Amino acid sequence: MSTVKSAQEAVDKVADQAILAAIQQTFAVGGAIIHNATGEVIVAMHNNVLMPFLGSTTYFLPHDPTAHGERQLVDWYYENVAALNLPPPNQLTVVTTLDPCAMCAGSLLTAGFNVAVSAIDTYAGINYNSQFNFPSLPPQIRQQAQNTWAYYAIGAPVNRAYQGSTKPAFGGQGIDASSYYLTASIFDASVNTVRAASNNSGLDPSQLQNPATLPANSPVRRALTILSPFALTVTSANPRDPGAELAAPLLKTAQKAEIFNSVALLDPFGNLLVCLGGVENQSPIRTAFMETTRNYAVMRWTLMNDPDPVVRAQAEQYLTHPKYGTFVFLYAPDPTTPQAVMTFGAYGSTMEGPVPQSYPSNLQYVLLPGNTTPEALATLAQNLPPFYTQSVQVAPNQVLSQDLINAVKNGV
Fold first, then answer.
1. Contacts of 29 (CB under 8 A, 6+ apart)
2. Coil, strand, or helix at residue 211?
3. What CATH number labels 205-410?
4. What's the average model confidence in pLDDT over 105-112?
5. pLDDT digits (tens, 9 = 90+) for 265-292
6. What is the pLDDT of residues 286-300, one digit of tens each?
7. Model-level pTM?
8. CA-CA distances (angstroms) from residue 22 to 16, 63, 186, 190, 298?
């Protein structure tokens, strides 16, 4: 493990990761977990949204829409905390080249890390307004961010003052303008190309074929069944208006989850493709939605990179991009928690651009948790950074079917 002795060295370290990401042709963002007391760089990672398959120089996009550097760092920490006897998150800092998006901000706040940032993202960053007041965060968790996050000072000619808490590693310090411009410009150079590749990585529904017609031994059907035992066992007549047929998969999946919840993904034909619960005992950010969107994406990426061209063609013809599908939560996320910010952010990253507008939304829930109201969920969505409100247009809605709501209530 290497050691850094200043904010400048820390940002230089993560800037190297951003360069590696740029070479990989994914979002050029890098990050690292640094021990506050010693400056030890415990692990460094970069974005892997777009990723070559098994060393190939050609690859289908995307790999995992949630594979941002910061989200990966949080999961890495929980995968290794016991084996490596790592300090608790409040003694560590995630240093990142770019202001975290909503997904990553929610992940970092859920885990409780300190955070230190170089460049601002004025479109998707959690401090998109550059005022360092976290306008997208619910009041209940805004103070947590203000107590644990910092934005390093930047030297001339930028002359940005240090902003935020001094708890992160190298609190109160700054970096030179060259490092700041590197971390900002390298991301700016990658962002539009990667978003376009991600958002356009699937056939229009008019060109898709129905996976329910595939034989039992087809690679796509087998992969879906391995991922989720309920795959292709349920079909809704209208994918935007699922009925009581979805209650059993949602409830049975939730019963096996660490926290009683589940999320289903329907395709444009109304087929249930995936229904998964969370594994929060392994990492508090591995919620039902994160598991559903990540696992479906990686499965699709794997099939579309299969050495057999027949398998690749079948995957392309039968597996939809999620923007043409419908996500259905058993329970909506609690809008007072950082997990809700993470979830709506992860949905935005899954879409990675405009979603075909139709009613109802393709982001739905059956029940609300606790004393949550639809208005509170809508307020959280409407206060997200511009990428989520202007491009993706995050709009959570309760399912229309009272039969589905009643079936779930009777089964809870």
1. 17, 18, 21, 46, 47, 68, 69, 96, 97, 98, 187
2. helix
3. 3.40.140.10
4. 98
5. 999 999 999 999 999 999 999 999 999 9
6. 999 999 999 999 999
7. 0.96
8. 10, 15, 7, 7, 21
Residue whose token pair is 């030297």: 155
Q: Say if residues 354 and 388 touch (Cβ distance below 8 Å).
A: no
Candidate CATH numbers 3.40.980.10, 1.10.260.40, 2.30.30.140, 3.40.140.10; the one for domain 7-200:
3.40.140.10
Q: Tell me the C-alpha distance between 24 and 19, whole Å.
A: 9
* Alpha helix (H) residue ranges in 200-231: 219-227
From-to residues of CATH 3.40.140.10 in the chain: 7-200, 205-410
Q: Which helix (H) or strand (E) holds 194?
A: helix 177-199
Q: Given the DSSP bridges, would you call strands 163-164 and 174-175 parallel, antiparallel or unpaired?
A: unpaired
Q: Which of 263, 282, 283 is nearest to 273 (CA)?
A: 263
Q: What is the pLDDT of residue 376?
A: 96
Of 226, 255, 269, which Cα lies nearest the Cα of 330? 255
Tell me the pLDDT tens digit for each residue of 305-358.
888 999 999 999 999 999 999 999 999 999 999 999 999 999 999 999 889 888
DSSP 388: I
